[in-house]
Specification:
19% strand; 742 residues; binds beta-D-glucopyranose; globular; five-stranded parallel beta sheet; 32% helix
């Protein structure tokens, strides 16, 4: 009885305590804000970069920056990490600045920290949100151990133009898959049960529509309809927000004439008023002063005014808030309340991290020594890397290779390369940690296997006296040829736009020369984007898309080549046949004249098929899967109803494997036109040889809804097609009817 009574009392008063605590955080923020000068407020809204060198977990700050911290002129640093330096600067902030407000340390933890994981586009190819979440968890643990509080990730920009180098940093062309990955990444970084000293804050970027840059050219203009903003580009941001993301980053681009950093509709109306976001927005690197070059303001001062009133809370590297905000407030051009609101949002995050209780919470030399690049993290990187690989072709079942194969010619500039497999944005990843393809193969193949390794040519610029003789001779003497070709890591990522998507330099010629020998050729690709490889697709026996896989590259590739891992990745983006076909994506609109190869006056090019070389969702396995018995729970539902979609998937081979079962819909007639297909569900399932599983999906109102002509989110009555299959173009199909709810 007594226990019951005590529990009842506790149950009653516990929420009051929680409430009191919540109020007290806001009150503490209030009491800080009333005591802060305008200069100190501007300081909290200013972020500056330290310098760092890539070879050690070390970064530097200048004497001037230390003084700035003391004077309360810095709220946050980026690129400052390592327990020693973060502790030292934090001490200055807390003990020597007048307000004693702790610093926030941000960093681009994009695909792992020191243990470099596959690039995000590769991770998305796993179609496995749980493993991606684990990858980000590992990254967070390592980064937190190095004193970092906050990552500028996930990047969730939908990208349908592979010329854009930053396609490597996102999850590809589809808003549904992009949203699933966005959620997984936020949960991975921030943890599911609240922030600890082993999690870091996430920052979803680049808000918004950065991937819509005209011509795929970096930093370029975006001019899209409100509909494509809502339907295509915003969903992953909303998904990140629903997963609790702490911060947003504004993008460099303009949309319809307004740069994002000064776009009140995006940053305040949609983000705060419509979506209820409570965290803060950081600008991209100098994107506040860059509004001058955009031609929307004449001076930095005006840029600062535009940015703060639009809803950009923190100025990354612009120095504009620090220089101009106090005067703008004094002159009455910006209200002090606007500045206070931004300061409040930044301080709230510092409270959430527990930095006011213990500013050194993340500065732990012991964690830094034991939690970074340890065996467990390397194992996690290998598991992620294997799952990121996509098998594009496997003619005559040339793969997997037998471990007792007698000889292998391993050819290509990336076959024994240690720098490029890290990919763009590897930051503190070290080339010396990378297992090369050669090393990976040596570790798996029988000791008796003769491996002849030769570069054949360079990635981009070959010697003037280019000579394929050595490569050709190696191929002649081997049972199988493995060619490792592709891009250098700096050809993608930021400022890595390309106008040509072919294999760079002389690599395709090398491939042709080697293929001419007539030996079985396995092409392993390393690249940060879809490449145009129609010749290779026709002439190589097998093609393995490995993207950039990080430190475990060689091991993961060898696992796949020799069958220790049965590939299960699927493309998160379509592969065009030629660059002129771009943008080519699966969820396009039908047009009034859908492509028809036998009738000229239809929407197509006359010199290339209308289909991509490899469609979205495509990827092979060493197993084969068959789909049967697609069934719907109902052929007619009301607008608030649910349809259950089931299908039997059989592993019709004698090898255990995994398959990503994909479900798409088409709203056949709408008040506005709808895409020919839209992904609405997928499940990655393991099937033993010969096993059949019944896979079930639910299509709920939200899956069928769309923005109608008035931009209202509704389910419209009418017929819907359902497609289920192994990729976006190879599906079983059925249909059902939606009727207006009575
Ligand atoms: C990039 C951001 C990045 C920031 C900080 C910018 O140039 O666009 O994605 O987070 O730099 O490094």
């Amino acid at each position: 009885m007594k226990i019951l009574f005590t529990s009842l009392v506790l149950a009653f008063i516990a929420p009051l305590f929680l409430f009191a605590q919540k109020v007290s955080t806001e009150q503490q923020i209030d009491s800080l804000i009333v005591r802060m000068t305008l200069e100190e407020k501007a300081g909290q809204l200013s972020q500056f970069s330290g310098g760092w060198n890539n070879v050690s977990t070390n970064s530097t700050v200048t004497a001037e920056q230390r003084t700035m911290v003391k004077e309360g002129k810095v709220g946050s640093f980026l690129n400052v990490f390592g327990s020693t330096i973060t502790r030292e600067l934090q001490r200055i902030a807390v003990e020597e600045s007048r307000m004693g407000i702790p610093l926030l340390y941000g960093f681009d933890v994009i695909h792992g920290f020191r243990t470099t994981f596959p690039i995000p586009l590769a991770e998305a190819s796993s179609w496995d949100p749980d493993v991606v979440e684990q990858a980000e968890r590992t990254a967070a643990i390592e980064a937190a151990a190095a004193g970092i509080h906050w990552t500028f990730a996930p990047m969730v920009d939908i990208a349908r133009d592979p010329r854009w180098g930053r396609i490597a940093e996102g999850s590809g062309e589809d808003p549904y898959l992009g949203s699933v990955m966005a959620r997984a990444r936020v949960k991975g970084f921030q943890g599911e049960n609240g922030l600890t000293d082993k999690t870091i804050l996430a920052c979803v970027k680049h808000y918004a529509a950065y991937g819509g840059a005209e011509g795929g050219r970096e930093y370029n203009t975006v001019d899209i309809s409100d509909r494509s903003l809502r339907e295509t580009y915003l969903p992953p941001f909303k998904a990140a927000l629903d997963a609790g993301v702490a911060t947003f980053m504004s993008s460099f681009n303009e949309i319809a004439g307004v740069p994002s950093t000064g776009n009140r509709r995006l940053l305040t109306d949609i983000l705060r008023h419509e979506w209820g976001f409570k965290g803060f927005v950081v600008s991209d690197w100098t994107s506040i002063p860059e509004m001058r070059a955009h031609g929307i303001v004449a001076t930095d001062e005006e840029a600062g005014m535009l940015a703060i009133t639009a809803g950009t809370d923190m100025d990354m590297m612009g120095g504009v808030y620090l220089r101009y905000l106090p005067a703008l407030v004094r002159e009455g051009k910006v209200s002090e309340q606007t500045v206070d609101e931004a300061v409040r949002r930044v301080l709230r995050v510092k409270f959430q991290l527990g930095l006011f209780d213990n500013p050194y919470r993340f500065c732990n030399a012991e964690d830094e020594r034991t939690l970074i690049y340890n065996d467990a993290n390397r194992a996690a990187a290998r598991a992620m890397a294997r799952r990121s690989i996509v098998l594009l072709k496997n003619g005559k079942n040339v793969l997997p290779l037998k471990k007792d194969i007698r000889s292998i010619a391993l050819i290509g500039p990336l076959a024994d390369d240690r720098e490029n497999p890290l990919g763009p944005w590897a930051q503190v990843g070290r080339p010396s940690d990378v297992v090369t393809v050669l090393e990976g193969i040596k570790a798996v193949a029988a000791p008796s296997c003769k491996i002849i390794n030769t570069r054949g040519c360079e990635i981009v610029d070959s010697l003037p006296t280019r000579d394929f003789n050595e490569a050709v001779a190696a191929a002649k003497g081997a049972d199988v040829v493995i060619m490792v070709l592709g891009e250098s890591s700096n050809m993608s990522g930021e400022a890595g736009s390309r106008s040509n998507l072919d294999l760079p330099g002389d690599q395709e010629e090398l491939l042709r020369a080697v293929c001419a020998i007539g030996k079985p050729v396995v092409l392993v690709l390393m690249n940060g984007r879809p490449l145009t490889i129609p010749w290779a697709a026709d002439h190589c026996d097998a093609i393995v898309e490995s993207w950039f896989l990080g430190v475990q590259t060689g091991n993961a590739i060898a696992d796949v080549l020799f069958g220790d891992y049965n590939p299960s990745g699927k493309l998160p983006v379509s592969f065009p046949r030629v660059v002129g076909q771009v943008p080519v994506y699966y969820n396009y609109k039908s047009t009034g004249r859908p492509a028809n190869s036998s009738y000229r006056f239809t929407s197509k090019y006359i010199d290339v098929p209308s289909t991509p070389l490899y469609p979205f969702g495509y990827g092979l396995s060493y197993s084969t899967f068959s789909y049967k018995d697609l069934a719907l729970s109902s052929k007619k539902i009301a607008t608030d109803g649910i349809v259950r979609v089931t299908v039997n998937v059989t592993n019709s081979s004698n090898r255990d494997g995994e398959e990503v079962v994909q479900m798409y819909i088409q709203d056949e007639v709408g008040s506005v036109t709808r895409p020919v297909k839209e992904l609405r569900g997928f499940k990655k399932i393991a099937l033993k040889a010969g096993e059949t599983k019944r896979v079930e999906f639910a299509l709920e109102p939200n899956d069928l809804a769309m923005y109608n002509r008035e931009m209202k989110w509704v389910v419209e009555p009418g017929s819907f097609k359902v497609f289920v299959g192994t990729n976006s173009s190879d599906n079983l199909e059925d249909e059902f009817e939606v009727v207006q709810k009575q």
